[in-house]
Task: structure prediction
Amino acid sequence: MIDQAKEFFSANRKALRFLALFGLIFGACYFLLAVAPGVRFGLIRPYTELLARAVAAIINLFGAGATVQGALVSSPSFSINIAMGCDGVEASSLFLAGVLAFPTTWRARLIGLALGIPLIHAINLARLVGLYYAGVLMPSVVDEVHVYVAQTIVILLSTAILIFWLDRFAVQHRRA
Amino acid sequence: MLPLWWQAVDALAAMAAVPASWIYGLLDPRVVIEADGKTINVFVTATRESGFGGQVHSSGLRVDTVTYGLPMLVALVLVTRADSIRAKSRALATGLIVMTALTVPAVLAWAKLVSLQLDDRITISTLTASGNRSDFFYYAFHGYAFSQPVLAVGVWLGLLMLGLFKSRPAPKSAPAPVARNAPCPCGSGKKYKRCCGR
Result:
Protein backbone atom coordinates (compact mmCIF):
# COMPACT_ATOMS: atom_id res chain seq x y z
CA MET A 1 0.00 0.00 0.00
CA ILE A 2 2.79 2.43 0.99
CA ASP A 3 4.81 1.32 -2.04
CA GLN A 4 1.79 1.93 -4.30
CA ALA A 5 1.35 5.42 -2.82
CA LYS A 6 5.06 6.16 -3.31
CA GLU A 7 4.86 4.94 -6.91
CA PHE A 8 1.77 7.08 -7.53
CA PHE A 9 3.45 10.19 -6.11
CA SER A 10 6.68 9.66 -8.03
CA ALA A 11 4.83 8.93 -11.31
CA ASN A 12 2.54 11.99 -10.93
CA ARG A 13 4.97 14.39 -9.25
CA LYS A 14 4.54 17.17 -11.85
CA ALA A 15 0.77 16.84 -12.01
CA LEU A 16 0.42 16.84 -8.23
CA ARG A 17 2.71 19.87 -7.98
CA PHE A 18 0.54 21.73 -10.51
CA LEU A 19 -2.67 20.76 -8.69
CA ALA A 20 -1.31 21.72 -5.25
CA LEU A 21 -0.03 25.08 -6.55
CA PHE A 22 -3.30 25.65 -8.40
CA GLY A 23 -5.33 25.07 -5.22
CA LEU A 24 -3.03 27.20 -3.07
CA ILE A 25 -2.94 30.14 -5.50
CA PHE A 26 -6.71 30.00 -6.06
CA GLY A 27 -7.34 29.89 -2.30
CA ALA A 28 -4.91 32.75 -1.63
CA CYS A 29 -6.36 34.93 -4.44
CA TYR A 30 -9.91 34.22 -3.40
CA PHE A 31 -9.16 34.93 0.26
CA LEU A 32 -7.35 38.16 -0.57
CA LEU A 33 -9.89 39.51 -3.06
CA ALA A 34 -13.21 38.23 -1.74
CA VAL A 35 -12.86 37.43 1.96
CA ALA A 36 -10.25 39.79 3.45
CA PRO A 37 -12.40 42.77 4.53
CA GLY A 38 -9.79 45.44 3.66
CA VAL A 39 -9.55 44.43 0.00
CA ARG A 40 -13.25 43.57 -0.29
CA PHE A 41 -14.34 47.01 0.87
CA GLY A 42 -11.34 48.97 -0.42
CA LEU A 43 -10.98 47.47 -3.89
CA ILE A 44 -13.81 45.13 -4.84
CA ARG A 45 -16.72 47.31 -3.69
CA PRO A 46 -15.55 50.32 -5.77
CA TYR A 47 -15.06 47.87 -8.66
CA THR A 48 -18.65 46.58 -8.36
CA GLU A 49 -19.82 50.20 -8.40
CA LEU A 50 -17.80 50.76 -11.57
CA LEU A 51 -19.39 47.62 -13.05
CA ALA A 52 -22.84 48.98 -12.15
CA ARG A 53 -22.08 52.21 -14.04
CA ALA A 54 -20.81 50.19 -17.04
CA VAL A 55 -23.96 48.01 -17.06
CA ALA A 56 -26.19 51.10 -16.86
CA ALA A 57 -24.26 52.79 -19.69
CA ILE A 58 -24.68 49.72 -21.93
CA ILE A 59 -28.38 49.10 -21.24
CA ASN A 60 -29.13 52.81 -21.55
CA LEU A 61 -27.80 52.64 -25.12
CA PHE A 62 -30.89 50.50 -25.80
CA GLY A 63 -33.25 52.83 -23.95
CA ALA A 64 -33.48 51.12 -20.56
CA GLY A 65 -33.59 54.41 -18.65
CA ALA A 66 -31.48 52.98 -15.80
CA THR A 67 -29.99 54.89 -12.89
CA VAL A 68 -27.14 53.83 -10.62
CA GLN A 69 -26.88 54.09 -6.85
CA GLY A 70 -23.72 52.47 -5.53
CA ALA A 71 -23.75 48.94 -6.95
CA LEU A 72 -27.50 48.97 -7.62
CA VAL A 73 -28.73 49.43 -11.19
CA SER A 74 -32.42 50.43 -11.21
CA SER A 75 -34.71 50.74 -14.18
CA PRO A 76 -38.50 50.81 -14.54
CA SER A 77 -38.39 47.23 -15.91
CA PHE A 78 -35.90 45.48 -13.61
CA SER A 79 -33.17 46.20 -11.05
CA ILE A 80 -29.94 44.36 -10.34
CA ASN A 81 -27.57 44.63 -7.41
CA ILE A 82 -23.99 43.75 -8.26
CA ALA A 83 -22.89 41.83 -5.20
CA MET A 84 -20.29 39.25 -4.29
CA GLY A 85 -20.02 36.56 -6.94
CA CYS A 86 -20.96 39.03 -9.71
CA ASP A 87 -17.55 40.71 -9.70
CA GLY A 88 -15.62 38.12 -11.70
CA VAL A 89 -13.26 37.39 -8.79
CA GLU A 90 -13.82 33.61 -8.91
CA ALA A 91 -13.26 33.34 -12.66
CA SER A 92 -10.17 35.61 -12.51
CA SER A 93 -8.74 33.65 -9.55
CA LEU A 94 -9.28 30.38 -11.44
CA PHE A 95 -7.47 31.72 -14.51
CA LEU A 96 -4.69 33.34 -12.48
CA ALA A 97 -4.10 30.12 -10.53
CA GLY A 98 -3.95 28.06 -13.73
CA VAL A 99 -1.51 30.48 -15.39
CA LEU A 100 0.80 30.84 -12.38
CA ALA A 101 0.80 27.13 -11.45
CA PHE A 102 1.71 25.86 -14.92
CA PRO A 103 5.48 25.39 -15.44
CA THR A 104 6.26 27.85 -18.25
CA THR A 105 8.17 31.09 -18.79
CA TRP A 106 7.22 34.37 -17.16
CA ARG A 107 6.80 35.86 -20.65
CA ALA A 108 4.08 33.32 -21.46
CA ARG A 109 2.46 33.94 -18.09
CA LEU A 110 2.45 37.72 -18.57
CA ILE A 111 0.91 37.33 -22.05
CA GLY A 112 -1.78 35.07 -20.53
CA LEU A 113 -2.60 37.47 -17.71
CA ALA A 114 -2.54 40.56 -19.95
CA LEU A 115 -4.97 39.00 -22.43
CA GLY A 116 -7.00 36.67 -20.22
CA ILE A 117 -7.94 38.79 -17.21
CA PRO A 118 -9.43 41.72 -19.23
CA LEU A 119 -11.24 39.21 -21.47
CA ILE A 120 -12.75 37.44 -18.43
CA HIS A 121 -13.95 40.76 -17.02
CA ALA A 122 -15.44 41.68 -20.40
CA ILE A 123 -17.30 38.33 -20.38
CA ASN A 124 -18.44 39.03 -16.82
CA LEU A 125 -19.77 42.44 -17.89
CA ALA A 126 -21.65 40.74 -20.75
CA ARG A 127 -23.10 38.29 -18.19
CA LEU A 128 -24.40 41.18 -16.05
CA VAL A 129 -26.00 42.83 -19.08
CA GLY A 130 -27.44 39.43 -20.05
CA LEU A 131 -28.83 38.96 -16.53
CA TYR A 132 -30.54 42.36 -16.71
CA TYR A 133 -32.27 41.35 -19.95
CA ALA A 134 -33.07 37.90 -18.50
CA GLY A 135 -34.81 39.75 -15.65
CA VAL A 136 -36.75 41.94 -18.08
CA LEU A 137 -37.74 39.16 -20.49
CA MET A 138 -37.95 36.06 -18.25
CA PRO A 139 -38.59 37.26 -14.68
CA SER A 140 -39.91 33.87 -13.54
CA VAL A 141 -36.60 32.05 -14.19
CA VAL A 142 -34.09 34.83 -13.60
CA ASP A 143 -33.00 33.36 -10.23
CA GLU A 144 -32.14 29.99 -11.79
CA VAL A 145 -30.39 31.69 -14.71
CA HIS A 146 -28.44 33.85 -12.24
CA VAL A 147 -27.36 31.06 -9.88
CA TYR A 148 -26.81 28.12 -12.19
CA VAL A 149 -26.46 29.20 -15.81
CA ALA A 150 -24.65 32.55 -15.83
CA GLN A 151 -21.98 31.58 -13.29
CA THR A 152 -21.36 28.25 -15.04
CA ILE A 153 -20.98 29.93 -18.45
CA VAL A 154 -18.44 32.46 -17.13
CA ILE A 155 -16.36 29.73 -15.45
CA LEU A 156 -16.54 27.51 -18.56
CA LEU A 157 -15.42 30.40 -20.78
CA SER A 158 -12.59 31.20 -18.35
CA THR A 159 -11.53 27.54 -18.51
CA ALA A 160 -11.65 27.69 -22.31
CA ILE A 161 -9.39 30.78 -22.26
CA LEU A 162 -7.02 28.94 -19.89
CA ILE A 163 -6.90 25.90 -22.19
CA PHE A 164 -6.31 28.18 -25.23
CA TRP A 165 -3.42 29.84 -23.39
CA LEU A 166 -1.98 26.45 -22.36
CA ASP A 167 -2.16 25.22 -25.94
CA ARG A 168 -0.93 28.33 -27.77
CA PHE A 169 1.51 29.93 -25.34
CA ALA A 170 2.38 27.91 -22.24
CA VAL A 171 3.28 24.54 -23.76
CA GLN A 172 5.59 26.09 -26.40
CA HIS A 173 7.62 27.84 -23.71
CA ARG A 174 7.33 24.99 -21.23
CA ARG A 175 10.14 24.50 -18.75
CA ALA A 176 11.51 21.00 -18.28
CA MET B 1 -28.05 15.54 -17.16
CA LEU B 2 -29.75 18.35 -15.21
CA PRO B 3 -33.03 16.43 -14.55
CA LEU B 4 -30.97 13.42 -13.40
CA TRP B 5 -29.00 15.59 -10.97
CA TRP B 6 -32.19 17.30 -9.75
CA GLN B 7 -33.70 13.88 -8.98
CA ALA B 8 -30.54 12.88 -7.09
CA VAL B 9 -30.40 16.00 -4.88
CA ASP B 10 -32.58 14.38 -2.16
CA ALA B 11 -30.26 11.38 -1.99
CA LEU B 12 -27.20 13.66 -1.98
CA ALA B 13 -28.70 15.62 0.93
CA ALA B 14 -29.25 12.42 2.92
CA MET B 15 -25.77 11.12 2.06
CA ALA B 16 -24.07 14.36 3.13
CA ALA B 17 -26.15 14.96 6.27
CA VAL B 18 -25.34 11.64 7.97
CA PRO B 19 -21.51 11.90 8.03
CA ALA B 20 -21.68 15.67 8.62
CA SER B 21 -23.97 15.16 11.64
CA TRP B 22 -21.69 12.45 13.00
CA ILE B 23 -18.49 14.50 12.54
CA TYR B 24 -19.96 17.77 13.84
CA GLY B 25 -21.57 15.97 16.79
CA LEU B 26 -18.11 14.96 17.96
CA LEU B 27 -16.94 18.60 17.87
CA ASP B 28 -20.03 20.39 19.14
CA PRO B 29 -22.96 18.47 20.65
CA ARG B 30 -25.19 21.61 20.54
CA VAL B 31 -25.56 21.16 16.78
CA VAL B 32 -28.04 18.84 15.05
CA ILE B 33 -27.88 18.29 11.28
CA GLU B 34 -30.84 16.68 9.48
CA ALA B 35 -31.74 16.17 5.83
CA ASP B 36 -35.22 17.21 4.74
CA GLY B 37 -35.78 16.62 1.03
CA LYS B 38 -33.44 18.86 -0.95
CA THR B 39 -32.50 20.85 2.17
CA ILE B 40 -30.17 20.14 5.07
CA ASN B 41 -31.35 21.80 8.27
CA VAL B 42 -28.88 22.81 10.95
CA PHE B 43 -30.19 23.41 14.49
CA VAL B 44 -28.00 25.00 17.16
CA THR B 45 -29.18 25.18 20.77
CA ALA B 46 -27.75 27.92 22.99
CA THR B 47 -26.10 26.76 26.21
CA ARG B 48 -27.53 27.66 29.64
CA GLU B 49 -24.38 29.63 30.53
CA SER B 50 -24.97 32.00 27.62
CA GLY B 51 -28.17 33.34 29.18
CA PHE B 52 -30.05 32.16 26.07
CA GLY B 53 -30.51 28.60 27.34
CA GLY B 54 -32.86 26.54 25.22
CA GLN B 55 -33.06 29.03 22.36
CA VAL B 56 -32.69 27.23 19.03
CA HIS B 57 -31.21 28.92 15.99
CA SER B 58 -31.73 27.08 12.73
CA SER B 59 -30.93 27.51 9.08
CA GLY B 60 -31.47 25.43 5.95
CA LEU B 61 -28.86 24.76 3.31
CA ARG B 62 -30.30 24.05 -0.14
CA VAL B 63 -28.22 21.12 -1.32
CA ASP B 64 -28.72 22.03 -4.99
CA THR B 65 -26.66 25.20 -4.37
CA VAL B 66 -23.67 23.14 -3.18
CA THR B 67 -23.91 20.32 -5.74
CA TYR B 68 -24.74 22.01 -9.05
CA GLY B 69 -21.14 21.46 -10.15
CA LEU B 70 -21.93 17.74 -10.52
CA PRO B 71 -23.77 17.94 -13.88
CA MET B 72 -21.10 20.33 -15.13
CA LEU B 73 -18.37 17.87 -14.14
CA VAL B 74 -20.24 15.01 -15.85
CA ALA B 75 -20.57 17.11 -19.02
CA LEU B 76 -16.85 18.02 -18.94
CA VAL B 77 -15.86 14.36 -18.47
CA LEU B 78 -18.18 13.19 -21.26
CA VAL B 79 -16.72 15.64 -23.80
CA THR B 80 -13.12 14.83 -22.87
CA ARG B 81 -11.37 12.40 -25.19
CA ALA B 82 -10.39 9.19 -23.39
CA ASP B 83 -8.40 6.15 -24.49
CA SER B 84 -11.32 3.82 -23.80
CA ILE B 85 -14.84 3.76 -22.41
CA ARG B 86 -13.42 2.02 -19.36
CA ALA B 87 -10.95 4.88 -18.75
CA LYS B 88 -13.74 7.43 -19.18
CA SER B 89 -15.99 5.50 -16.77
CA ARG B 90 -13.17 5.37 -14.23
CA ALA B 91 -12.57 9.12 -14.55
CA LEU B 92 -16.31 9.80 -14.24
CA ALA B 93 -16.67 7.60 -11.14
CA THR B 94 -13.61 9.17 -9.48
CA GLY B 95 -14.85 12.68 -10.22
CA LEU B 96 -18.34 11.96 -8.90
CA ILE B 97 -16.96 10.42 -5.70
CA VAL B 98 -14.67 13.42 -5.09
CA MET B 99 -17.40 16.00 -5.79
CA THR B 100 -19.92 14.14 -3.61
CA ALA B 101 -17.39 13.79 -0.81
CA LEU B 102 -16.70 17.54 -0.97
CA THR B 103 -20.37 18.16 -0.08
CA VAL B 104 -19.68 16.94 3.48
CA PRO B 105 -17.18 19.72 4.36
CA ALA B 106 -19.62 22.19 2.76
CA VAL B 107 -22.33 21.05 5.19
CA LEU B 108 -19.85 21.20 8.09
CA ALA B 109 -18.93 24.76 7.08
CA TRP B 110 -22.62 25.70 6.96
CA ALA B 111 -23.12 24.21 10.44
CA LYS B 112 -20.18 26.27 11.69
CA LEU B 113 -21.68 29.37 10.07
CA VAL B 114 -25.06 28.80 11.79
CA SER B 115 -23.31 28.18 15.09
CA LEU B 116 -21.30 31.41 14.70
CA GLN B 117 -24.47 33.34 13.87
CA LEU B 118 -25.94 32.28 17.23
CA ASP B 119 -22.68 33.09 19.03
CA ASP B 120 -22.62 36.53 17.37
CA ARG B 121 -26.20 37.16 18.43
CA ILE B 122 -25.31 36.29 22.02
CA THR B 123 -22.10 38.38 21.92
CA ILE B 124 -23.88 41.43 20.52
CA SER B 125 -26.68 41.31 23.11
CA THR B 126 -24.50 40.58 26.13
CA LEU B 127 -21.48 42.74 25.34
CA THR B 128 -21.02 46.13 23.78
CA ALA B 129 -18.57 44.66 21.27
CA SER B 130 -20.07 43.98 17.87
CA GLY B 131 -18.05 40.91 16.96
CA ASN B 132 -19.38 39.59 13.67
CA ARG B 133 -17.36 36.51 12.88
CA SER B 134 -20.21 34.88 10.96
CA ASP B 135 -20.01 37.54 8.20
CA PHE B 136 -16.36 36.73 7.62
CA PHE B 137 -17.11 33.01 7.63
CA TYR B 138 -20.00 33.51 5.22
CA TYR B 139 -17.70 34.97 2.58
CA ALA B 140 -15.19 32.16 3.08
CA PHE B 141 -18.03 29.61 2.79
CA HIS B 142 -19.39 31.34 -0.31
CA GLY B 143 -16.12 30.85 -2.13
CA TYR B 144 -15.76 27.21 -1.19
CA ALA B 145 -19.25 25.80 -1.35
CA PHE B 146 -21.13 28.06 -3.73
CA SER B 147 -18.38 28.23 -6.35
CA GLN B 148 -19.43 24.87 -7.74
CA PRO B 149 -18.31 25.54 -11.34
CA VAL B 150 -14.80 26.35 -10.07
CA LEU B 151 -14.79 23.13 -8.02
CA ALA B 152 -15.99 21.14 -11.05
CA VAL B 153 -13.24 22.61 -13.24
CA GLY B 154 -10.65 21.94 -10.50
CA VAL B 155 -11.69 18.28 -10.18
CA TRP B 156 -11.77 17.87 -13.99
CA LEU B 157 -8.25 19.37 -14.27
CA GLY B 158 -7.14 16.93 -11.56
CA LEU B 159 -8.59 13.98 -13.49
CA LEU B 160 -6.83 15.17 -16.66
CA MET B 161 -3.47 15.82 -15.03
CA LEU B 162 -3.46 12.51 -13.16
CA GLY B 163 -4.04 10.65 -16.41
CA LEU B 164 -7.38 9.11 -15.51
CA PHE B 165 -8.56 9.41 -19.12
CA LYS B 166 -5.69 7.19 -20.26
CA SER B 167 -5.81 3.41 -20.27
CA ARG B 168 -3.59 1.80 -17.68
CA PRO B 169 -0.65 -0.08 -19.20
CA ALA B 170 -0.94 -3.85 -18.80
CA PRO B 171 1.17 -5.04 -15.88
CA LYS B 172 4.51 -6.39 -16.99
CA SER B 173 4.56 -10.15 -16.52
CA ALA B 174 7.73 -11.72 -15.17
CA PRO B 175 9.74 -13.49 -17.90
CA ALA B 176 9.35 -17.26 -17.96
CA PRO B 177 12.28 -19.05 -16.30
CA VAL B 178 14.86 -20.40 -18.77
CA ALA B 179 16.06 -23.98 -18.41
CA ARG B 180 19.78 -24.17 -17.66
CA ASN B 181 20.52 -26.27 -20.76
CA ALA B 182 18.25 -24.33 -23.14
CA PRO B 183 19.72 -21.83 -25.68
CA CYS B 184 20.34 -18.47 -24.08
CA PRO B 185 17.56 -15.94 -24.90
CA CYS B 186 20.18 -13.25 -25.58
CA GLY B 187 20.85 -14.89 -28.97
CA SER B 188 24.52 -15.79 -28.38
CA GLY B 189 23.94 -19.45 -29.41
CA LYS B 190 25.44 -20.70 -26.13
CA LYS B 191 23.56 -22.63 -23.46
CA TYR B 192 21.88 -20.42 -20.90
CA LYS B 193 24.04 -21.88 -18.09
CA ARG B 194 27.24 -20.95 -20.03
CA CYS B 195 26.04 -17.41 -20.91
CA CYS B 196 23.64 -15.10 -19.05
CA GLY B 197 22.65 -17.74 -16.52
CA ARG B 198 26.18 -17.98 -15.06
Q: What stands out?
A: Chain B touches chain A at residues 65, 68, 72, 136, 139-140, 142-143, 146-150, 152-154, 157-158, 161-163 (CB under 8 Å). The mean pLDDT of chain B is 82. DSSP finds six helices and three strands in chain B.
